[in-house]
User: Which sequence fits this backbone?
């Protein structure tokens, strides 16, 4: 097998990547602009011995994916804003009980059913804080079809490696866009499997973590009988609802899983940032406009660079901080009323650079011209 | 052969958290004896629950077990069963969990006829939260959220399951525990979706607000108001007024979901999709 050159739609790339990453279970519910992922996987999963099921609602589809993952299979679901809201309940369950799964949210305009199905970036905070409680989460955000493919594989890998839900936050633009992509040979793609238990059943504690704070996994029915609960639990997996020490330790561990691998999880691209006097911090479909804006501005002699975030959560504060005293300002274009810009401000609160939000929430993309104008206002 | 239920319990997780006089343990005992009757090993059985008094059953039984979110146990179980069809999947739910917040999932799991055995422990009340009325609380009963009596009619969960396509449906009570054990035994052996409703007493959350302070009074109520479906066939509507039916209501054969899906996989691999 060699590298493959293809013309792919974003959602199609996501579905293909899921199969390549070893996903063998999909449960979902129809919603635009995410439905292509379900349609393609309904066709492709049975061919590789996997299972597709269309559930009665978004809540049930999230539950079924978690149930399948508990059964030992890699699971994925896809939705858009309104469906993502319904998935929050069981997403929190997966975070608490440490069940790997991937949720794709192809964002559209809100609030509520909003603008079906024009693009938006309004679920950045829902992806971080949508489910109740101080849960850990990883959120990845593609801006091209190729990134959609590669980040889907990363999402499945992170999820299996860390035993936690991972969210892919795409949008109606990237989801429906068709682009030429050069996919790597399957054998060159790193596929991660969840850590397996090495101790015999009598020594087994289902939630006793290794040094990386991730407990090894064994599915039910293999001679290791155990219990899992979403109540605060001890290393044995049993409820410890009133044990303060156990609660403190568990919650720290759930977050430390991510912090210990932060260098690997936080992914950004720094484009023409070496001599930049103004930085644009962008992600998702807006990063496409930002890239074009950088090219235009450079042609006009303006020293502008782009920090493109592929990981939104954990927020890449270290990358933003690095430029805090080097650039005059960081422009943050977002298709919302200002969500991730707050994190940029937090990262730069003791730095010289100013932060300039640039927002649009009418269902239209932010244009390169708008961004170039914002750059000129700084200069 | 007699079975010591304790042999199937995680005795190190005792004491349990149920109130004095609770009927959940009677229902759980019947389930454990039924599993023993069928002869399944501890390792091949998985018991999945949701939230509420019924959900607390599986932390203390020595099978493969996990508790899920409120009302969603059947959806988790569907995903699990599809990936592990060789395992015997049992869901224990309640009237609030299974008929209220999880009602939609129950309907659709019945419809799919997936091989999951569901025991719905109906104690007529939200017990864990202290006695609020549920969709199965009899109309006119008192509850903390119905201080003037419930206005809403309850519904018959067995008829609902039958209408939705469940291929095995039965009902017994904590008083008729032998029947309960027999029904669960048959439900476990049945290939397809089965639902057994177990009417139990909740003297603390329900009984003491409804002129049945003691568990004995509640068990007597079950004894006096239950009519076996076979006996009911020869009774007039007047004789059946105010009574409820127990026994086996549905026992039929239909293609099972995971088997059908396996066939789909084989077809997709040999022929390809349309």
Assistant:
């Amino acid at each position: 097998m060699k590298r493959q050159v293809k013309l792919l739609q974003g959602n199609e790339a996501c579905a293909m990547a899921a199969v390549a990453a070893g996903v063998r279970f999909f449960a979902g519910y129809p919603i635009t602009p995410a439905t292509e992922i379900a349609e393609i996987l309904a066709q492709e999963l049975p061919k590789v011995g996997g299972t597709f099921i269309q559930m009665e609602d978004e809540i049930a589809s999230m539950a079924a994916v978690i149930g399948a993952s508990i059964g030992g299979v890699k699971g994925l679901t896809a939705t858009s804003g309104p469906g993502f809201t319904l998935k929050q309940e069981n997403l929190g369950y997966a975070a608490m009980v440490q069940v790997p799964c991937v949720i794709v949210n192809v964002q559209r305009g809100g609030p509520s059913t909003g603008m079906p199905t024009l693009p938006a970036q309004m679920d950045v905070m829902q992806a971080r804080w949508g489910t109740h409680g101080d849960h850990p989460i990883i959120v990845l955000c593609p801006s091209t079809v190729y990134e959609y493919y590669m980040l889907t594989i990363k999402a499945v890998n992170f999820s299996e490696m860390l035993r936690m839900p991972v969210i892919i936050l795409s949008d109606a633009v990237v989801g429906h866009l068709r682009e030429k992509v050069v996919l790597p040979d399957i054998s060159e793609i790193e596929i991660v499997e969840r850590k397996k238990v090495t101790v015999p059943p009598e020594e087994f504690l289902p939630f006793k973590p290794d040094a990386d704070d991730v407990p090894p996994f064994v599915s039910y029915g293999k001679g290791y009988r155990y219990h899992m609960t979403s109540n605060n639990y001890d290393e044995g997996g049993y409820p410890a609802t009133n044990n303060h020490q156990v609660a403190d330790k568990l919650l720290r561990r759930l977050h430390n899983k991510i912090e210990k691998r932060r260098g690997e999880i936080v992914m950004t691209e720094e484009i023409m940032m070496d001599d930049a006097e103004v930085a644009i911090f962008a992600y998702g479909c807006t990063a496409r406009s930002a890239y074009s804006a950088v090219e235009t501005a450079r042609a006009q002699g303006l020293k502008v660079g782009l920090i493109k975030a592929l990981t939104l959560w954990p927020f890449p504060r270290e990358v933003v901080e690095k430029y805090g005293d080097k650039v005059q300002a960081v422009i943050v274009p977002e298709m919302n009323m200002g969500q991730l810009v707050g994190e940029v401000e937090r990262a730069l609160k003791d730095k010289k650079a100013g932060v300039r939000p640039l927002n649009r929430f009418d269902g239209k993309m932010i244009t390169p011209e708008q961004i170039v104008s914002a750059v000129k206002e700084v200069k | 052969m007699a079975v010591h239920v304790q042999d199937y319990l995680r005795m190190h997780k005792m004491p349990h958290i149920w109130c004095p006089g609770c009927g959940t343990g009677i229902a759980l005992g019947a389930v454990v004896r039924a599993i023993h009757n069928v002869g399944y090993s501890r390792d091949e059985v998985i018991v999945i629950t949701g939230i509420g008094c019924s959900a607390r059953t599986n932390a203390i039984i020595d099978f493969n077990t996990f508790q899920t979110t409120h009302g969603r146990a059947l959806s988790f179980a569907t995903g699990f069963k599809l990936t592990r069809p060789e395992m015997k999947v049992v869901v224990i739910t309640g009237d609030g969990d299974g008929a209220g917040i999880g009602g939609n999932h129950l309907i659709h799991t019945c419809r799919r006829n997936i091989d999951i055995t569901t025991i719905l422990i109906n104690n007529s009340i939200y017990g864990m939260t202290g006695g609020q009325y549920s969709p199965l609380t009899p109309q006119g009963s008192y509850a903390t959220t119905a201080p003037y009596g419930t206005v809403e009619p309850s519904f018959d969960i067995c008829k609902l399951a039958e209408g939705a396509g469940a291929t095995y449906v039965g009902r017994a009570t904590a008083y008729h525990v032998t029947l309960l054990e027999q029904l669960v035994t048959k439900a476990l052996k049945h290939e397809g979706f089965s639902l057994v409703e177990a009417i139990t007493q909740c003297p603390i959350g329900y009984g003491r607000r409804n002129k049945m302070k003691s568990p004995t009074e509640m068990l007597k109520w079950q004894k006096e108001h239950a009519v076996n479906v076979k006996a009911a066939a020869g009774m007039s509507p007047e004789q059946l007024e105010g009574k409820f039916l127990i026994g086996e209501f549905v026992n039929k054969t239909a293609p099972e979901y995971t088997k059908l899906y396996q066939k789909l996989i084989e077809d997709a691999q040999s022929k390809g999709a349309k």
Observations:
- Residues 4-188 of chain A form a domain with the Rossmann fold fold (CATH 3.40.50.970).
- The first helix of chain A runs from residue 10 to 20.
